Amino acid sequence: MSKCGRTHLLDAMTAGEVAPALEVELRAHASACARCRHELNWLESEQRLFRHRAGRDEVQQLWQGIEQRTPRLQPSAMNRMLVALAAALLLVLGVGRLTVTGANPTAGGGTTTDAEQLQSVEWASEPMSFEDPQACSKLTPGLGFHCGTVQTSVLASR
Amino acid sequence: MLRLLTRTPAITPETPDDSLVGRAQAGETAAFRALFERHVVSVRRFLRDLLRDSHAADDATQEAFARAHAQLPKLTEKERFKPWLLGIARNVAFEARRVRVHDVYDHDSDESDVPDAVIPSPNPEALLLNQELAKQFNEALSELSPNRRAALLMRLDHGLSYDDIAANFGWSIPTVKNEIHRARLKLRALLLPHLGRLP
Predict the structure, then answer these.
(1) From the CA atom positions of chain A, what is the Rg in Å?
(2) pLDDT in tens, A98-140
(3) Are A66 and B187 a contacting pair at CB < 8 A?
(4) Region for B122 from its dihedrals, namely left if φ exceeds 0, alpha if ψ lies in -120 to 50, beta otherwise
(5) Are the CB atoms for A145 and A151 separated by under 8 Å?
(6) pLDDT tens digit string along B41-60?
(7) Of residues B177, B99, B39, B96, the one with CA closest to residue A59
(8) Are the Cβ atoms of A66 and B134 closer than 8 angstroms?
């Protein structure tokens, strides 16, 4: 195979470093030039081999090791305390809201009367059919359910 | 605390490296974490190829990123983060190897070079990309001397330009091209028996 002055451009071409127009030109040239075709076959084979082995390795756990080696990357004690405080506050607010509004999805929040709470329980209990003696006998005792009528533990405690 | 309350632009896969580097330099941990997420697979593979040991590669990857974080304020060409990071990784790998085997990596002589003869063409379409070929490929890579292997990997596996590789090694561009050319010839000679040839 005789030398060709364009072979050295093929490396840049396969690395995506040449303009699209030049790539078209080089590929057309390589189809007619034995030297360039040979080089392009090798370059494309190497490229396929490198791509094939570039699968995603398990690397996420490495971040912890980097944090340990880099104190400035570790969350500060102040930040940790603020995050914990915010989480606790959200938890308290969330639980309080759930306790007040109960299970009625139509409730708009705020305090509710006993009658409203009873209505909400009736709404919640509609899909359940505990009046069936067989189904009722399968209920675990002590959960606040009574056969014939359905009461939640919230009402039973009143 | 003020930083927590200040609104910062969201980090997305499209956020360029130089922007992340700038934000990491300003102390934004999430930006450095994003750079880690983006480059850790590449860095670990590079180190595994240099060290040929998965556990050592894990350790070296952590060390490379820890050093990168420490040296980040010195990085002025923010868009060159990846070549710069691979340069740090290469130094870490070479230090690790020196400690382990007292090998100073001065074996890049020409004695093991294959002659610049015409090697038959493979058929890229007929490549059977399977475990066996992957194993042969890894073994062929490990036959290359460490500097040549590092230069070849930077170019072919990690897409660095000749300029970036030259800057990393402190070599001239013709030297980089020559080293990579020689590495390629040797790799091709070793791989040829395992590749499908053109008729």
Answers:
(1) 36
(2) 665 544 444 444 444 454 544 444 444 444 445 555 655 555 5
(3) no
(4) beta
(5) yes
(6) 999 999 999 999 989 999 99
(7) B39
(8) no
